[in-house]
Amino acid sequence: MSETVERHEFGAEVGRLLDLVVHALYSDREIFLRELVANAADAMDRRRFEALTSAASALPPDAKVRIRPDKEARTLTVSDAGIGMAKEDLAQNLGTIARSGTRAFSQTLESAKAEDRPSLIGQFGVGFYSAFMVADRVTVTSRRAGADEAWTWASDGQGSYTLEPAERAEAGTDIVLHLKEDADEYLEPYRLDHLVRKWADFITVPIAIVQDGKDEAANQGTALWRKRKSEITPEQYEEFYRSVGMNFDKPWATLHWRAEGQLEFSALLFVPGMKPFQALENDRHSKVRLHVRRMFITDEAELLPPWLRFVQGVVDTEDLPLNVSREMLQSTPALARIRRAVTGRVLSELTSRAKDADDYTTFWENFGPVLKEGIYEDHERRAEIAPLLRFRSSAVEGWTGLADYVARMKDGQEAIYYLVADDAEALKASPQLEGFRARGLEVLLLSDHVDAFWPESLSRFEEKPLRSITQGGLDLSAFAAEGETAEAPEGIDALVAAIKAALGADVSDVRTTDRLVDSAVVLSAGSGPDLQMQRLLRRAGRGPGGAPVLEINPRHALIRALASGPAEAVTEAAGTLLDLARIQDGDTPRDPVAFARSVTAALASSRSA
């Protein structure tokens, strides 16, 4: 070591702190490249800012961040043409852990005009040390803009560093990482290109990867969301949409705006024009990308709630508090305000687009089931989501909304009726609808996987309660049924009692009903959740203890025959009636084999008769 080399100790409790930074602060090794590129970009922005008042600090015409892998030497070099560092800067910024030169510099900008201030990323002074995750030795050679001398800082990350004079033709900094044996992937240009495009694709500073002595551009350098709408063509929007979400279609909606004032951020979001290949049920997390000053931070910031997880795009903010690793977000009021603002804007766009029924149908058929989740998940937004819901109906073709349903309600109708089942086509033929159709009462037909859950959470719409028609106690006597002439037969009360006795604990009750026309029997919920919810709970092994109610149509020919027939026939028929009612509701017979035998015997008996 030459006589001019000076040895200094780190200005911190080195061993423990540096080990923490290198091994515990970051969850992914690849983060080191983002941190070094961020520092390089900050240095170039600082030099550009100083050039406003000092011609000596002007950036070279071809200024860029260069990333140069050297497989033979096993080194990775990150170079910039930024402001550079003098000897004292190297000692203070790199020799004192958690002292950020960027942060110190930003504190001097308070008097500068807003439009002149550089957009600086680094804040904590620890990102540089992430280099030791992949390198066992790091050297930094830097020359301060306006200075004639350069210095080299070097350390193996074990608690000390060296400073010595060096040569560098121009102002700027070279960071040389001597890679560890298990870090070969960072010597591959394709891998480096991938990391730059992932983490730093949109920062304004050009980034190049040196391959075979040539600079290959590695980032776009243009953040589309930072431009004015008037400057962007539809083709550019579509290209960005396809790149950010790996889509092949055209977006159904494009939301591009900038929020200004106390909270500033830019957003470019898309509602896809088709369902993604991967089912949205597999991952219920929003993947909208969070950028801070164009630098990608995470796509796990949950910027939108799970029930808007189909929305894709970018939110970029100027000043969002992050933790020191910039991998995770601190829970701050600023982040909560961004989430509320972005969610509100998406809902506003959906509300506006819903006015065009044909256009909105495209969205609804793709993402309606996901949007419904917001009814039971988001109490605060429930009233905003409800008007956006669409349903099939027993009374009209196509899709209809709750407001349209209410407008069509009959005089004296107090509730919004709905029916839930697994099969949309089976719903249309369900016996549950017979009495409602006969009385001109509309029923909404629900068959999505979430439909068993959200109606109870919404409870009411425009002061009208939502009521499942499979819940017991529905009274339709206030509405006259078309063609209802036959009277209940004599002996019906005795028949009801006999069927109830024969079925025992399999039913909670047996009673006559006026909501059947063509069918002999139907089930309803005795108490608690409706039939669909009870089925789902049973499938999950958490079914309620109550048995269903069997309702019988006293005007049906079969029921009339049983009422006037021998008592032993009722005992034999009771189980078959219950199983028929279960099948009609999309369920299975209690004992499929016994049911098949019963039906076979009945058919044989009718043939012989």
From TrEMBL:
Main location: cytoplasm
Matching Pfam families: HATPase_c_3 (PF13589), HSP90 (PF00183)
Signal sequence segment: none
Listed SUPFAM superfamilies: ATPase domain of HSP90 chaperone/DNA topoisomerase II/histidine kinase, HSP90 C-terminal domain, Ribosomal protein S5 domain 2-like
Gene Ontology molecular function: any one: ATP binding
InterPro entries per UniProt: HATPase_C_sf, HATPase_dom, Heat_shock_protein_90_CS, HSP90_C, Hsp90_fam, Hsp90_N, Ribosomal_Su5_D2-typ_SF
Family stated for the protein in its record: Belongs to the heat shock protein 90 family.
Subunit structure comment from the entry: Homodimer.
Protein name: Chaperone protein HtpG
Gene that encodes the chain: htpG
